[in-house]
Amino acid sequence: MPSIVQQQLTVISEPTRFRIVEFLKDGPRSVGGIVDDLNMGQPQVSRHLRLLAEAGVVDVTKRAQQRIYELRPAAMQGLSDWTQQFAGLWSERLDRLGAFLDETSSGGADDA
Q: Which residues contact 46 (CB under 8 A, 6 or more apart)?
């Protein structure tokens, strides 16, 4: 069974849902507002929002006749925590690249 982070990444990786997440980073939005931003039909947008909600990426609140969607901070923190596991790896690789470039540029100066 996939982890919650894997489920969230899978759901967010679809381009339309990725765009929805990008819209929601600025704050809660109504379905109608998201429909307008995406220039898509409401049924398609609602389907994408349902999948994001099922994966725990967004919360939905009903206000009168509107449904308001917003990012779930806990989900975003979980994704952030997961990516931070790789920070040391990238730092190490960038340090090695820097050392290689320093070695290459100083070696090239001696050859001139």
A: 31
